[in-house]
UniProtKB/TrEMBL annotation:
It comes from Halomonas mongoliensis. It catalyses: prephenate + S-adenosyl-L-methionine = carboxy-S-adenosyl-L-methionine + 3-phenylpyruvate + H2O. The keyword Transferase applies. This is Carboxy-S-adenosyl-L-methionine synthase. InterPro entries: CmoA, Methyltransf_25, SAM-dependent_MTases_sf. Catalyzes the conversion of S-adenosyl-L-methionine (SAM) to carboxy-S-adenosyl-L-methionine (Cx-SAM). It is an enzyme of class 2 (transferase).
Amino acid sequence: MSDASYRDAIFSTPLDRVARFSFDERVVACFPDMIRRSVPGYGQILGMLGLIARRHLRHGARVYDLGCSLGAGGLALAGQLSPDAFRYTGVDLSPAMVARARETLAAECPDHAMEVIEGDIRTLDYAPAGMIVLNFTLQFLPPADREAVIARLFEALEPGGVLVLSEKVRAEDEQENAWLVERYHDFKRANGYSDLEISQKRTALENVLVPDTLAAHHARLAGAGFARSHTWFQFLNFASLVAFKDPAFKDADAPAPREE
Ligand SMILES: Nc1ncnc2c1ncn2[C@@H]1O[C@H](C[S@+](CC[C@H]([NH3+])C(=O)[O-])CC(=O)[O-])[C@@H](O)[C@H]1O
Ligand SMILES: O=C(O)C(=O)Cc1ccccc1
């Protein structure tokens, strides 16, 4: 068992040919460092999962974390919710990620019900769930597969269920998009990545991570049947949305809506 985490230096030396990005052992070994230095708002989004669950999750319901990587979503939830509040099912396609996620969750939250399944979120047989988290995962599916997955998740959600969808996004307006991408590269530089690392990773992610616009996400969610969705977080070209299965979403102690 190895729980060591290394600094991400995967794209730090010049490569003759930059291979397509994949979630292999090398990425797993430095993943916590990579994602924290590369995804603006990653820690803040994880920190909100428990708060969203507290408001919207039926006590004891299942939470799916799809594309769970090392189980960071599970760790965040277990840190904020009692063991009887939820059952966690992480799912990931990468065997290396799944092995490390299982070790980490067993060691860090032995009293919580935490399972990790090695599988493809496009074909998984979903059990009913109160909350589904897609934290930077949909963006890695071929665009043509995204609609069917969202439709299956809508079906898997129980009445009152909530979907949290975090994604790298593309701005509709070309100039706005270019500005956001440039500032994102500045963000990476400020987090210690060199120009070479930034440009080689960009090449590796071409046609692998394909961002949609926020409008496309909201339209897809509505098309699948979600009663409402909204963007609750954006930091540069990274955003997080919530989508509710029912119009009257559960929000137990929210104030009564005001008459217009
Ligand atoms: N079809 C698929 N089925 C299952 N898993 C998949 C599939 N395609 C990709 N993955 C998995 O989706 C994860 C995306 S990372 C998620 C971060 C995590 N949510 C986190 O909050 O730390 C995002 C990132 O690295 O930017 C990887 O572990 C893939 O193996
Ligand atoms: O690094 C990037 O350019 C990203 O878009 C974020 C990211 C983070 C971790 C794996 C792949 C992409």
